[in-house]
Write a structure and sequence with these properties.
CATH class: Alpha Beta
Number of helices: 4
Distance between the termini: 27 Å
Radius of gyration: 13 Å
Structural class: alpha/beta
Strand order of the largest sheet: 1-2-3-4-5
Length: about 130
Amino acid sequence: MYSIIADSRQRRLTLTFSGEMDQDPAAFFEELTSKVQRLRAAGDDWDLLTDFSDTPVMPQDRAQNTVRIFAWFMDNGMRRGACVLQSVTQRMQIARVTGRNDAVVFFDTLSKAESWLNNPAKTEPALG
């Protein structure tokens, strides 16, 4: 299960995953890109907050799909991304699928990730 929230005021897309990632990839991508386009209607750049803390490591097919999604994000105005993760294995996987992009920072709690997005100069990432 997942949720996608586009917050125009904060210029932020929030993705939250829970349990196994069994969503239809094409429908998920359509919903995701539609919400990003709504964010971009008010300006080009936006931030991403993704919470993976309630889901296991992605199966290989989902990881490959995430590579494509992340590339689309970067081509479509993503300024920075905060990922909340529960394990070092997840961190390694997300680092790999994002190409170890400096725009993506990892955290162990949602509150730390939100704080960093709100004020990146004053918040240290928990998972480096």
